Amino acid sequence: GNSVTQMEGPVTLSEEAFLTINCTYTATGYPSLFWYVQYPGEGLQLLLKATKADDKGSNKGFEATYRKETTSFHLEKGSVQVSDSAVYFCALHGSSNTGKLIFGQGTTLQVKP
Amino acid sequence: SQTIHQWPATLVQPVGSPLSLECTVEGTSNPNLYWYRQAAGRGLQLLFYSVGIGQISSEVPQNLSASRPQDRQFILSSKKLLLSDSGFYLCAWNPDRGDYGYTFGSGTRLTVV
Fold this sequence. Notes:
The structure holds two protein chains of two kinds. By secondary structure, chain A is mostly beta strands. Chain A has no helices and twelve strands. In chain A, the strands form three sheets. In chain A, strands 2, 5, 6, 10, 11 and 12 form a six-stranded mixed sheet that branches. The model of chain B has no long low-confidence stretch (mean pLDDT about 90). In chain B, a hairpin with a 2-residue loop joins strand 5 and strand 6 (about 55-60). In chain B, the strands form two sheets. In chain B, strands 2, 4, 5, 6, 9, 10 and 11 form a seven-stranded mixed sheet that branches. A four-stranded antiparallel sheet of chain B has the order 1-3-8-7, with no helix packed on it. Chain B is globular and about 40 Å long. Chain B has strands spanning about 5, 10-15, 20-25, 30-40, 45-50, 55-60, 65-70, 75-80, 85-95, 105, 110. The chains are: A mainly beta, B mainly beta. The interface of A and B includes residues 43, 46, 93, 99 and 100 of A.
């Protein structure tokens, strides 16, 4: 079945450091891929998405490229800020599903000043 | 534009008491609707989803039930709460297109005491 695996956290970085959060997936066909962010005490917000191979999703300085050959969708940001501290979830929608998304377990990012 | 409302924001309930959480979506018709639970420091667990009025699919056996009495209303209930029902409950919706992703509500923090 479809699944998403994220790197375990927490990830702790200093302000202005480079961020990578790894995400790999298992799916049949050509899934759509998503990154969601959850700030403390809030619901999840869509951060970016990519719907086909080699697409790059980007938003608020974050980027992720849909790599079908490595079944990956790693999240990157060149210079993190304290305000980026949150939990990040990778997710996929498989082509055979209803509207359901499959989520990874989440990665907590802590950015220190 | 579409919006999703979820209430209450926080709830403290004694063990054995009933529960009713409500979620409504505005600005769209026939949405797919979802209930998730997030235990402290954990990932997302899909509890129920619905693709239409009166159509409920349960993902895990548990002490909870869901109903969809109207097109844009989704209710999560329990007759008798357990301590293990504590958590952060999130409602989400999407149109019947997986590549759209979800829009989440702001969540309900439930503490069973």
